[in-house]
Each structure stands twice: as structure tokens, then as C-alpha cells.
Write a structure and sequence with these properties.
With 446 residues, this protein is an all-alpha fold. The protein contains 18 helices and no strands. Helix 4 packs across helix 17. The radius of gyration is 22 Å and the shape is globular. InterPro entries: AA-permease/SLC12A_dom, APC_superfamily.
Length: 446
């Protein structure tokens, strides 16, 4: 029971500046993972991986602008869930929150599973489950103890990732230059392949968009960000642009060094290329960096899902006493973080292909909703003091929404079916908690 001195509601501490938020977003995206998924993307896009990343960046860029506008208007944790609930209505807000939970909840699990798979390949005598449990325990402790500690840890991990990525790009370019001989490198070839159908490239772009998820995840840290109306929009756009530039350049140089999609193992194509361009020493460095990237990404992913659950619990859409709990000492949503770790144990029974098949379904729905929220705000005329013109309030977000829907439709059928099942389950839960929609889910006062 609270005393009078503690009657004020628990609040998250504002301790993160622009650099920390930027690093969290980039760590969530894990720039180095572009190499870990390169083979799958190259095959799906018919060797147009660089163009697929560029097309995905265009769609994500317009969506990032919409996130930035809404982060200024609603400086609270919750991401697309909060924006849709406050712009449209609580029922739609709940459904977007439910769809967002699809990628937030399962993304940490996928990250830990991929990291464990790489470690198992390097140390086959150590069971995979040991690596998965180790990832979960370490990241959970860091996130519960405090976002500041995790942010400082991310600085070191991001420096390592960016350094190895730069080495990979330089080695690919050097190898491609040497292989090209007197004729020189065919500079435009990774972007222009007339024989490849545009649909194949779009299918690749739908997969490539998975790599961009971190740009929107940092909006869940709004209540812990210093001067959020200024820093959050900047961070969101910078994360999308910087991450996109890294992905496009990495895929471009990989295609120059290894044209085509013939690999010994598509899932580990980057290891084959790494050995080709840098030998055994670089392969070892690359593996170490990739594991660090997965660890950093897992920290940010788990932090984000914990804060999304906190926002929904605080609104009493989920039980408030449980999901709206803030640890009295560490001032973090400790229960939600631990729950994300427990969900990650599902990875013990899944493989990478199954666990990643439907994550983007929820992401694309959330991205579409955010763009439509900006359109709704613009048409309502209630801009909360913000200057929103026709281009920024209507044209750009509509382009973003159409692009996101196109990417959603480009997902494989399995992802669409599993995503639809998840959505229906959420609709049934909403029907139950609102007594057949006769009442709105509880709202929170900002």
C-alpha cells in the first residue's frame, strides 16, 4: 500500500540523450546482421539485394517522417499503439498494439536464436540451448538493472559492429577490383538487372525491411528521453537513414565481390564470402562481431517490448498491477522484461525460418497505421501546435502507407496466414475485454 509521500504515479526516468537513443536504435537493427541474412535475401530477390534494401529504405524513410511527427505530438511510450489509439480510437489502437506485439514479442527470441545458431556452428560441442539461456539471462539482467547501463554497453558493441562492417566493405571492394582486371568493376550491375522481375526485387524488399525494425522501436523510449519532442524525431529519421545506408553499401559491395546466388549454404553465405575475401583470420573476426551484434540487438529488442507492455498495462488494456509495474529501485518495467525473456525460451523448440516467418506482418501493419495517423491529424486540423503542411501531412504519409501495404502483400503466404491468425486472436481478446465492443478499452491521460 502506498504512503502519502509516494502517492505520485511511478514514472520512467528521463536519462537518454540523442546519442544514446541513436545507438539503441542502431543496436536494435544490428547493422552487421546484413551479412548474416545476405544469402537468404540475395536468393529471394534474384541477386538484387542492394536494390531491395534501397526500395525498403524509401518506404521506411517516409514512415520514419510520420513517426517523427507523432513523437512530437505524443511524447509518451507506446509507439504505433499509442499513436493509433489517440488519433483514431481505443479499439483500433488496441489492434495495432496487438499487431506490434507480434514482432516486438518474437524479435528478441529470433535474435537470441540466430546468435545461438552461430555460436553452435563455431562450438558444436556446446548444446544450442546453453547459448540461448545465456543470451536471455545476460540481456534480462542488463535491462532490469537499468537502461543507462545497457546504453553504455551498446556504445562499445556498436563501435565493434561498425568497424567490422567497414572492414567487410573495404575487403569486398578490394577483391572485386582485383577480380575485375583491366576492364574495371561493373559499378551499376548490383542495381540494374533488366532480366529480374520487379516482383522478385519487391519480395526481397519485404524481407529486407526486417533489418529496419529498430528505427520505430526507439519510440518506446520516449518517456526516458531528454527533450523528446526534439530528440526523438531526429533519432528516428537518423536511425532509418544511417541503417539504410549501411545495408545498401554492404549488399552492394557483397554483390560486386560475389555476383550471383550460388552458395554452399545460403543461410551462411556471408561466411563463404568472408573467407574468400579475407581468409581464416577475417572469418574469425567476423564471427565474433556477429555474435556481439546479436547481443546488442537483443538488449534493445527486449527493452522495447518491456516498455510497450508497460504502456498497455498502464492504460489497463493489460492488467495494470502486473504490466504497469515499475521496479521501485531500478525504475524499469522489470516484470515485462523478465516475461520477454521467458517467451524467448520458445526458441528452444523452433528454428530460425519458422520464428521469423511472420514478424514483418505486424511491423507493416503498424507502419501503415502510423502513416494514416499523420493523415488523420492533418485532416482534423488539430495539430497540437505543430506546423504540418499538405506535403508532410498528406502526400508523404500516403506514399509511406501505400509502400508499406505493398511490402505487406509481398510477404510469403505462410507469413500472411500466421499473421492473420494472430490478428484474429487479438480481435477476439478485444471483444472479450470490451464486452462485445460495448465499451472502449481504458485510456490514459498524458
Amino acid at each position: 500500500m502506498q504512503t502519502s509521500s509516494s502517492s505520485e504515479p511511478s514514472r520512467l526516468k528521463r536519462t537518454l540523450g540523442l546519442p544514446s537513443v541513436l545507438l539503441f536504435g542502431l543496436a536494435y537493427m544490428a547493422p552487421l546482421i546484413v551479412y548474416g541474412t545476405y544469402g537468404v535475401l540475395a536468393k529471394a530477390s534474384d541477386d538484387t539485394a542492394a536494390l531491395a534494401y534501397l526500395l525498403a529504405l524509401i518506404a521506411i524513410g517516409f514512415t520514419a517522417l510520420s513517426y517523427g511527427k507523432l513523437a512530437r505530438l505524443f511524447p509518451v511510450a507506446g509507439s504505433a499503439y499509442t499513436y493509433t489509439r489517440k488519433t483514431f480510437n481505443p479499439h483500433l489502437g488496441f489492434m495495432i498494439g496487438w499487431a506490434t506485439l507480434l514482432d516486438y514479442f518474437f524479435l528478441p527470441m529470433v535474435i537470441w536464436l540466430i546468435g545461438a545458431a552461430y555460436l553452435n556452428a563455431a562450438f558444436p560441442h556446446v548444446p544450442t540451448w546453453i547459448w540461448i539461456v545465456a543470451f536471455i539471462v545476460l540481456t534480462s539482467v542488463l535491462n532490469i538493472v537499468g537502461i543507462e547501463l545497457a546504453a553504455r554497453f551498446n556504445i562499445v558493441l556498436m563501435i565493434v559492429q561498425l568497424a567490422i562492417t567497414a572492414m567487410f566493405v573495404v575487403l569486398c571492394w578490394h577483391y572485386a577490383s582485383a577480380a575485375a582486371g583491366p576492364g574495371g568493376i561493373a559499378m551499376a550491375e548490383p542495381f540494374f538487372k533488366p532480366h529480374v522481375p520487379f516482383g522478385a526485387t519487391m519480395a526481397g524488399a519485404a524481407i529486407a525491411a526486417y533489418s529496419y525494425l529498430g528505427f520505430d522501436a526507439v519510440s518506446t523510449l520516449t518517456e526516458e528521453t531528454i527533450d523528446p519532442t526534439r530528440n526523438m524525431p531526429r533519432a528516428i529519421l537518423l536511425i532509418a537513414l544511417i541503417g539504410g545506408a549501411i545495408f545498401v553499401i554492404a549488399a552492394y559491395t557483397m554483390q560486386l565481390a560475389h555476383p550471383g546466388v550460388e552458395f554452399k549454404d545460403t543461410d551462411s553465405a556471408a561466411f563463404e564470402v568472408a573467407k574468400m575475401i579475407g581468409g581464416d583470420v577475417f572469418v574469425t573476426v567476423f564471427l565474433a562481431g556477429l555474435i556481439l551484434a546479436q547481443f546488442a540487438s537483443g538488449i534493445s529488442a527486449q527493452a522495447s517490448v518491456g516498455r510497450l507492455l508497460y504502456a498497455m498495462g498502464r492504460d489497463e488494456i493489460l492488467p495494470k498491477r502486473v504490466f504497469g509495474f515499475i521496479h521501485p529501485r531500478f525504475k524499469t518495467p522489470a516484470f515485462n522484461i523478465a516475461l520477454a525473456g521467458i517467451v524467448g525460451l520458445i526458441a528452444l523448440k523452433l528454428d530460425v525460418a519458422t520464428s521469423t516467418s511472420f514478424i514483418n506482418f505486424g511491423a507493416f501493419l503498424a507502419f501503415t497505421a502510423v502513416n494514416l495517423c499523420v493523415v488523420r491529424v492533418y485532416l482534423s486540423g488539430n495539430h497540437g501546435g505543430l506546423k504540418i503542411g499538405l506535403i508532410g501531412g498528406m502526400i508523404f504519409p500516403l506514399i509511406g502507407a501505400v509502400a508499406d501495404i505493398w511490402l505487406l502483400a509481398s510477404l510469403e503466404k505462410t507469413a500472411l496466414v500466421l499473421g492473420a491468425v494472430w490478428f484474429v486472436l487479438g480481435l477476439a481478446y478485444l471483444c472479450w475485454i470490451t464486452r462485445l465492443f460495448r465499451q472502449a478499452p481504458p485510456e490514459v491521460a498524458i
